[in-house]
Amino acid sequence: MRRAMIGLILSLTVVLFSNFVFDESSLKKAFVESVIDNETFIAIVDGNKIKVKLLGVDVEDWTMNYYGAQALKLLQQTINKIVYLEFDNAVVTSDVEVFAYVWLELPNTIQEQGKTYVTQEEISSKMLNALLIVNGLAYPEPLFAGLKYIKVFEGLEKYARTNLIGVWKNYYAPPRVSVFVTPSLGYYHVSTCPLLQTINWSFIADYLDAQAMGYKPCPLCRPKK
Length: 225
Ligand SMILES: [Zn+2]
Description:
This protein is α+β, with helices and mostly antiparallel strands. It has 2 domains: 2-169, CATH 2.40.50.90; 178-217, no CATH class. It contains 7 helices and 14 strands. The strands form 4 sheets. It has a 5-stranded mixed barrel. It has a 4-stranded mixed beta sheet with strand order 13-11-12-14. Strands 1-9-8 form a 3-stranded antiparallel beta sheet. The longest helix is centred in the C-terminal third of the chain and has 13 residues, at 150-162. It starts with a helix and ends in an 8-residue tail after the last strand. The mean pLDDT is 87. The site of zinc ion has 7 residues, from strand 12.
């Protein structure tokens, strides 16, 4: 997963080029305590517990499909870790709930004429919001006008779309065979499986994606394998 991601990011260099003024001292260190859904987590900041929502992205619904489940996994990797929150002047935040860009690690910066900048490469490799988009698990969401990184996000979406990454793969090449996944059993099923009447399925996926996630064909309904 990590290696694939880095591969993607390297090839982005050709596409993107702008740098952004960056103030590292304005970042807030946060300890991620838990994940609520694939856009929201609970973190400890300056000793206070706050709800953090990912800014500028609309993430696939984790209850409904494979890509949403992948996005949730990416968020869950931050649990018990330190991240760095960057706020946007375009958004007013409260003491208990904030919208933020979430840096998984501090980006490398460059100095030019007395100013500090961060490159698009750093953004697309170290900022969670951007990683979700470039992996085809989320879309840019200009919910607030004038977001600092929205143009980068749009560029990353274009990249993911052009290269059929994540949701874009299904968008242009619909699932070959959709199956219903029950993670508690470790199986995937056809829609008519009797087990689905007693156990709720979590998401629908292409059978090959379900296999790639480690799920086995249900021995009762015998879906495609
Ligand atoms: Zn079944």
